[in-house]
């Protein structure tokens, strides 16, 4: 009887320990980077955008290294695999953001990718934890005010938050102050992260797919194809219904020149050569791209991505 009771008690524990965990990367928030002067300007098709300069922040601010290291450790202690942002930045090739451009080989049309998008595309974390903090001083005591935001790296939706101010302490070390402030919040915070990932595992991750046409292509999304002579836009919509998880997607916009799908649920994994591999937005979009290249469409096209959760297919040429 004792063995049976022990086995029953162990089953939930074993199931939890075998559950897949999301990959996480801790990043300083945009607010922290702007407040501390770690920004750079990026030319996005003629529009100047101010974005965080993560590389300089990690090189120059030792407090950032300490804070990220402490949060990484606290998450790892709870079984969450983390990607170290500093290491990811170092592994990206030193290519200027102005050269990180894609263009049509025939028309010369361009689509820009910011350095932040480039980082996220390489790191491919499931969840980003944005970290903001400030140190408060009252006489000999110090405390820390913090804000943790868990963001779905693909949809940019906030999925968990933890914010508060730690009790005043005589401690002077920033990691000690941070741990004292965060420790009572970290359990519920990681529970919400795991619940979100469990939903992704069952229902697919949420991405956006857009189909556009180059202006020199002689067709459009209202052209008729196939034996039934249906409009291309509706045929693409039918493909999306058949290939998204449980047919879950939303057609946000549709004209003769573009069709925009958001809240598209794609599977987390796919099988290739008997092995399970991670599915991302680009890989999912490539399936639609192949569908459009094949008969009866025979439409040459090009895929571009922005960040982790957005892909655009341009019809008419590479």
UniProtKB/TrEMBL annotation:
Superkingdom of the source species: Bacteria
Keyword Signal: yes
Alphabetized UniProt keyword annotations: Signal
Any Pfam family: DUF6175
N-terminal signal peptide: 1-19
Name of this protein: Uncharacterized protein
Organism: Psychroflexus aurantiacus
Lineage of the organism: Bacteria, Pseudomonadati, Bacteroidota, Flavobacteriia, Flavobacteriales
């Amino acid at each position: 009887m004792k063995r049976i009771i022990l086995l029953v008690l162990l089953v939930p524990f074993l199931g939890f320990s075998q559950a897949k965990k999301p990959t996480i990367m801790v990043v300083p928030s945009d607010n922290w980077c702007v407040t501390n002067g770690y920004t750079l300007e990026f030319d996005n098709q003629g529009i100047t955008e101010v974005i965080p300069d993560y590389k300089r922040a990690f090189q120059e601010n030792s407090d950032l290294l300490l804070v990220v290291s402490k949060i990484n450790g606290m998450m790892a202690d709870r079984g969450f695999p983390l990607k170290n942002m500093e290491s990811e930045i170092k592994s990206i090739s030193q290519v200027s953001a102005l050269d990180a451009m894609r263009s049509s080989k025939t028309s010369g049309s361009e689509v820009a990718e910011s350095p932040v998008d480039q980082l996220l595309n390489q790191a491919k974390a499931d969840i980003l934890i944005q970290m903001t903090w400030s140190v408060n001083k009252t006489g000999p005591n110090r405390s820390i005010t913090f804000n943790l935001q868990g963001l779905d790296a693909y949809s940019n939706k906030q999925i968990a938050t933890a914010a508060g101010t730690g009790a005043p302490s005589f401690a002077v070390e920033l990691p000690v102050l941070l741990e004292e402030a965060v420790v009572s919040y970290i359990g519920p915070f990681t529970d919400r992260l795991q619940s979100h990932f469990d939903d992704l595992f069952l229902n697919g991750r949420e991405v956006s797919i857009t189909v556009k046409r180059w202006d020199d292509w002689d067709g459009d999304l209202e052209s008729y194809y196939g034996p039934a002579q249906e409009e291309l836009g509706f045929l693409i919509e039918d493909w999306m219904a058949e290939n998204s998880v449980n047919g879950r997607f939303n057609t946000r916009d549709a004209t003769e020149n573009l069709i925009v799908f958001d809240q598209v649920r794609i599977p987390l994994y796919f099988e290739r050569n008997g092995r399970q591999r991670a599915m991302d937005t680009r890989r999912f979009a490539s399936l639609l791209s192949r569908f459009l290249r094949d008969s009866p469409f025979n439409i040459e096209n090009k895929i571009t991505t922005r960040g982790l959760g957005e892909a655009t297919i341009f019809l008419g040429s590479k």
